[in-house]
Design a protein that fits this description.
- The chain is α/β, with parallel strands linked by helices.
- Helices cover 37% and strands 23% of the residues.
- It is built from 5 helices and 5 strands.
- A 5-stranded mixed β-sheet has the order 2-1-3-4-5, sandwiched between helices.
- Strand 4 and strand 5 form a beta hairpin.
- The two termini are 31 Å apart.
């Protein structure tokens, strides 16, 4: 099984650097890349790396400005985005999948799946 690839978007904040350090301690087979969202081509780096997860600090306004969630999801459609909220000591997981939408029924099937 391939090692999971994870990107942490961090502008060198102590919080996200601590998260990176702790992940490295707990998951030895993890491929972890820290990308500074203020650096050149941060979104392209994410796309090229093709991570299974992207971790970001939701309290960092520059992350949302430079790498908006919708652009991350478009760059890596099947990625999980973990938005950390250090103020509330929780995180939100955003997942994505792509579907073909040829008919309105395709949308209805996603909104109201049949059992």
């Amino acid at each position: 099984m391939a090692s999971p690839r994870v990107v942490i978007l961090s502008g060198q904040s102590l919080f996200t650097e601590g998260v990176a350090s702790r992940l490295r301690e707990h998951i030895s087979q993890l491929e972890l890349k820290v990308i500074d969202p203020r650096g050149t081509g941060a979104l392209e780096q994410i796309k090229d790396y093709q991570p299974s997860a992207v971790i970001l600090d939701s309290a960092d306004p520059e992350v949302a400005e430079v790498c908006p969630l919708n652009e991350i999801l478009m760059a890596v459609p099947a990625v999980k985005v973990l938005q950390l909220d250090p103020r509330r000591e929780q995180f939100q997981v955003v997942t994505s999948e792509e579907k073909v939408a040829g008919l309105v029924r395709d949308l209805v099937d996603v909104i109201m799946p049949s059992d």
